[in-house]
Design brief:
BirA Bifunctional Protein, domain 2; 2 domains; alpha+beta; five-stranded mixed β-barrel; 11 helices; OB fold (Dihydrolipoamide Acetyltransferase, E2P)
Length: 452
Amino acid sequence: MSERVLVNQLKSLPAGAVEVSGWVETVRDQKKVQFVVLRDETGAVQLVNPATRPSAPSADSGTEVDQDAAALALTETIGALATGTFLTVRGELKHDERVKLGGVEIKVGELVIAAAANPETPIAADSSPDKRMDWRFIDLRQRRNNLIFRVQTTLEHAMRTYWVERDYIEVHSPKLMASPSESNAELFEVPYFEDKTAYLAQSPQFFKQMAQVAGFGKIFEIAPAFRADPSFTSRHATEFTSIDAEISWIDSHEDVARMQEELLHTAFQAVADKHGAEIQELFGVEVQVPSVPFPRVPLAEAREIVAARGYDIPRTDGDLDPEGERQIAAHVAETFGHQFVFITDYHPEIRAFYHMRDEETGLTKSYDLLFNGVEITTGAQREHRVDVLIEQAKEKGLDPEHLDFYLDFFRFGAPPHGGFGMGLARVLMLLLGESSIREVTYLFRGPTRLAP
């Protein structure tokens, strides 16, 4: 028995016997010849079979010619194939540049069906997003959707490589917590043993900081996070993949920002090198590798720029709203030719209690990173002095006693440190020019979606 070959390997193989496996994408059953487009995880290939049709009985014996039985059965099997049927084909590989699909085709010798599909597919190319999400496992068979997750793999691998080569430690923090990770809002409660209540982690924030106190120095994590946020926007989910990093012995949030921009430059370069041409073909997007350093704009200046562009930000807390983010990003693109911008120097009122404050300005040593007009990151230097942390928590209306497990981290010494959290789906969405994170999430979770 021959060994299975992937479709993307066929071009480099000599003509001859070959075996491929995949699923049926299309069937063209013509009178004299049958064509099947078979797709696997790496691409698609054309199968061809000279059709053998039922003939009149032999004048001598009154029976069909015996040698045509196998060919007739094969023709009938191919003619009955439904889109989505998984099968294995053994046949003869032929090279022919006239074949539009890769310059090769396979003349079918034997066809073995692994699992037949229902003849009526529940979704079509023009089905609504919700309908496609209902049948996501079929929706994902598209070459375009396959590419999304190859890009995601390359992106994550490049980031991990960047960190590992610089002696970062990868951690896996718990997602079940005894108390809220940052605040009492947007929490999922989970019944736990002995009538206890656990909470799904909103972020690994506290545990990232614990690693600094433990002396790890530099850490990263790529893992799920949960937000009980009833938002129905194109960039929110109740479960998402968070990319987090934390580093010790920093002078300010600028050390964190420099690390992140280098990380993204490296990751985007890897995506451009490996997938750039295919992304251009299937998404119509040119992958732009961002130059370093990224532009920086203080929040107060950003609000002035947005106002000068004719947009009045309705928020009363001093932060940018989504349209404000788009406006400042447009300014940066026009002025610096850059897709990214760090918005810095946020007021403590709109930041977490653990963000360090500048002693001179009173503003936090923090930033948001915008990519093509959408926030993908919050980063900051953390406050590591326990007495200051307690006071800042009180200012936020938090009870320090409820934060004891966190505050204990800092009662036995802590280095100056900081880090960021970044949403993987948002990065992919913006990188590929998609309109919603649902399209770039393997299985999306939102307020009204828990299946499949």
